[in-house]
Design brief:
406 residues; five-stranded parallel sheet; binds adenosine-5'-diphosphate; binds magnesium ion
Length: 406
């Protein structure tokens, strides 16, 4: 079917119409926004693996906060940013850009006066000149600057909701933790209202690392949201909803099949959905579309999410089969397994059992499996949920098991 009408968006935050699940996290975040609106600075963190839906959750909440809580919001993309001053510049720029078509957009522009220029052919691009000195001062008085922005926005906007996305590079910078702490301290002693909610978005491991070297910083983040794969029923709802909104028929067992193989990973669900969409020839999706779609999606996800060396090692049919069996044996959310447990796995052939130690050693070296955090010997995990599901998808190529109804 025509890719232009596909409801699936593998590379973008999801459209509000197709947003699925995350109900309690949304409620937590909105209640944080309401607390901030009463004048107390709130700082949260959304953690989770790549593709799990962190940015989508943040952006959906910002849509709701703007609509229902009179928030002024901006989504700041900080991938690659390592310096606090760059973060501050990007934040102000995003505030101007994301709000330029809103009724309060002009008020923000006027706050920056001469320093802001609307450039480009239609004047939609914005350039913001801030000198190094000014940037440094704004970094040290970040909340004061944000406070001024929300004040200037007008009576209709009560609270500032700021998403600082892909904070990973900054979180590695030791200045970041100090900056956060001194910001909290100065707000606590100043007794002025700061109706601001900052939500940092980043990988769980960065947060862990920062908390290890700086336990008191870890406590600053409330709420601390860690997003996990969807439940099977949520994945099913996602597919059902996406196809039915475009008037495409798909049987229950096929929906179930797609949901199972997406493993609850939103990015994979979109990738699979999109491949199935492209393959389908008419307004009904059949079992073959589903299988082929899954195989194609596995390929494209593999090149984006899985280490090249691991993919190369999977050229070996034996390795693919062993990995597929391990991945299949594990519960949906549990990604831990032990050598002992594997040796008793009934699905292994005698040769596979004999190659197990070699296989484990090699895979550890390549990064296809990893030791568990507290280093228990002979116990392993898949580095991410994506790895486990990817191995499962590869196994489909080997076994073509679980073929759905046609
Ligand atoms: N709650 C959701 N409902 C539907 N699709 C989602 C949801 N969360 C994420 N997605 C989709 O999954 C993919 C990855 O989401 P994204 O928010 O970019 O993840 P992350 O920021 O964690 O890497 C995107 O294609 C997005 O459209
Ligand atoms: Mg993201």
């Amino acid at each position: 079917m025509n890719p232009e009408y596909s409801p699936f968006t593998p590379n973008q935050p999801v459209n509000a119409d197709f947003f699925t699940g995350r109900k309690s996290q949304i409620e937590d975040l909105l209640s944080t926004v309401r607390k901030a609106a009463r004048g107390s600075l709130q700082i949260g963190w959304i953690a989770g693996e790549r593709g799990m839906g962190k940015s989508s959750l943040a952006s959906f909440v910002s849509f709701l906060a703007e609509r229902d809580e009179h928030a002024l919001s901006a989504h700041v993309h900080l991938g690659g940013v390592r310096k606090l001053e760059d973060m501050v510049r990007e934040t102000h720029l995003s505030l101007l850009k994301d709000n330029q078509s809103k009724s309060w957009g002009k008020n923000l522009l006027s706050l920056f006066g001469e320093r802001v220029k609307q450039i480009g052919l239609f004047g939609v691009e914005i350039q913001l000149d801030m000198s190094d000195k000014e940037l440094m001062a704004t970094t040290n008085n970040f909340t004061t600057s944000l406070g001024r922005i929300i004040e200037k926005a007008g009576n209709d906007r009560n609270v500032l909701f700021l998403i600082l996305d892909d904070i990973n590079g900054l979180a590695d910078n030791p200045r970041f933790a100090h900056w956060l702490k001194s910001m909290m301290d100065s707000v606590a002693t100043s007794r002025t209202d700061v109706p601001v909610c900052l939500i940092f978005v980043g990988l769980e491991e960065r947060l862990d690392k920062m908390r290890e070297s700086n336990p008191s910083v870890g406590r600053i983040f409330r709420p601390l949201i860690s997003i996990r794969p969807w439940e099977q029923s949520e994945s099913e709802r996602f597919f059902q909803n996406a196809f039915s909104k475009r008037n495409i028929g798909i049987g229950k067992s096929n929906v179930k099949f797609l949901a199972e193989y997406s493993g609850g990973l939103p990015v994979l669900a979109h990738e699979i959905g999109d491949s199935v969409w492209r393959r389908a020839k008419d307004n009904t999706i059949d079992g073959d579309d589903c299988i082929q779609g899954i195989v194609e999606a596995a390929y494209s996800v593999g090149t984006r999410f899985i280490e090249k060396e691991v993919i190369q090692a999977l050229q070996s049919r034996k390795y693919r089969s062993i990995l597929g069996k391990i991945a299949k044996n594990e519960g949906n959310l549990d990604i831990k397994f032990s050598r002992k447990e594997l040796l008793s796995l009934e699905t292994f052939t005698p040769t596979e059992r004999k190659s197990l130690d070699n296989f484990l050693r090699r895979m550890m070296k390549l990064g296809g499996i990893a030791p568990i955090k507290d280093g228990e010997r002979g116990v392993y995990r898949f580095p991410t949920h994506m790895h486990r599901i990817y191995f499962l998808l590869q196994a489909i190529n080997v076994a073509q098991k679980g073929k759905p109804d046609n």
